[in-house]
Amino acid sequence: MAKVKKQIEEPIILITNDDSIGAPGIRAMVEAVVGLGRIVVVAPDKPQSGMGHAITIGHPLRMQKVNFIEGVEAYTCSGTPVDCVKLAVDKILHRKPNICLSGVNHGANHSINVIYSGTMSAAMEASIEGIPSAGFSLLDYSMEADFTAAKIYVRQIAELLLLKKKDKHLLLNVNIPMATPDMIKGIKICRQAYAKYQEEFDERKDPHGKNYYWLTGEFINFDKGKDTDVWALANNYVSVVPVQFDLTNYELKAKMEKSWKL
Amino acid sequence: MAKVKKQIEEPIILITNDDSIGAPGIRAMVEAVVGLGRIVVVAPDKPQSGMGHAITIGHPLRMQKVNFIEGVEAYTCSGTPVDCVKLAVDKILHRKPNICLSGVNHGANHSINVIYSGTMSAAMEASIEGIPSAGFSLLDYSMEADFTAAKIYVRQIAELLLLKKKDKHLLLNVNIPMATPDMIKGIKICRQAYAKYQEEFDERKDPHGKNYYWLTGEFINFDKGKDTDVWALANNYVSVVPVQFDLTNYELKAKMEKSWKL
């Protein structure tokens, strides 16, 4: 009996970020996964850091095919990172990609940063769509950052995501310490540290005598746990936090059901 | 022995929204809580729906004291709902308010909307700061919506938040059905339903022949549970979902620790 060889379709890897198509981090991401599938890049046309899960409702979006890296299909979008994912699925791919990778972000997205991060929100949007996803961030804000170590872990985790087809809402927040590959001790699966920013707006006067304010803030970690992403990174591990979009506080829910009079 | 009567300080109630200071919903919110404390309104100067947890990093913010409702201190901010909360704490109140209320939003913020909603993100930002908070949304997008029922529940829940001082990260997502007070059966404590939007971008051509895209989408609820916010609202209950900002997926974390080779 003749065996019919099954045609194995090349997986589609959607890549986006929040630092825009011009950032070295997204270039490093593409280079890291070359050969794993058909790579399609859909990234913001300008920096979108701190955009969180914003979507563009009040005005329309533009999208443009651009030259990027040879052999890689690439588009820019005038909207937010979440818009990029939505547009990619509906108007470019016309199907769900097999996995979605966001980043590599220039700067940390550990702990509470997951809430503000456009990088992580893009990955979360894909995860809502049932696409296994990961956001990657390097603890180096510089545009001259060295992505050598980051690329090793991007590839390792991308390969894993391509295998884990059963976990369709799989969403990982991966942070890579600013270190050379030989300094990094490996990967730690972590929980999100309890930390926040202590804001202090920088108040200035414009040439017309009116006040304006720049957001600045100091990062404060309140969490002494050794199972957190902040701890792992401080100890030269790559931190991997599995993330979810069900924000229900089940513990508080149980407490309220028991003791609140509503 | 003479009893020293303790000076009871008036609680500060911070009110914000994402529909802007001009929306009827924020006016209804203020009216609902008159008499419960010193009310301070800090709201966006223009609509900020769908802004999620966005913050303004790349350009400075403006803030302006405005006339609003007699006896109520009010300011507009040029930024996002989250910016409003940060500015209010640092530059207006110079302390944390006792509670923060966000809304009343024109339109539902149940289920997955919690992720995209500027209304809920403002409340979450306050919760990160340790301020008991709630976001309120009425299932009526109209600017002529009737807030009669909403006001009853805003006041009831605001009174409760003022009492629950021990739960400093208390954060509630409250949705009110489009119904008269006598039609509403009461409050249900719920979990976030698993639902999402099926996107379909409306593709158009500008007068110069170039494409542009409007985000549109159909809401699809995959969750048949009777303990969800979507179910409660469809059955004329006010839904209250306790929300958290620790996004760690602990179930997946345990599974990964057991079976992933990293």
From TrEMBL, chains A, B:
It comes from the Bacteria. It is an enzyme of class 3 (hydrolase). This is 5'-nucleotidase SurE. It comes from Parasediminibacterium paludis. Residues 13-198 form the Survival protein SurE-like phosphatase/nucleotidase domain. InterPro entries: SurE (IPR030048), SurE-like_Pase/nucleotidase (IPR002828), SurE-like_sf (IPR036523). Coiled coil: none annotated. Belongs to the SurE nucleotidase family. GO terms for molecular function: 3'-nucleotidase activity. HAMAP family: SurE (MF_00060). Keywords: Cytoplasm, Hydrolase, Metal-binding, Nucleotide-binding. PANTHER family: 5'-NUCLEOTIDASE SURE, PHOSPHATASE, PUTATIVE (AFU_ORTHOLOGUE AFUA_4G01070)-RELATED. Its EC number is 3.1.3.5. Nucleotidase that shows phosphatase activity on nucleoside 5'-monophosphates. A divalent metal cation binds at residues 18-19, 49, 105.
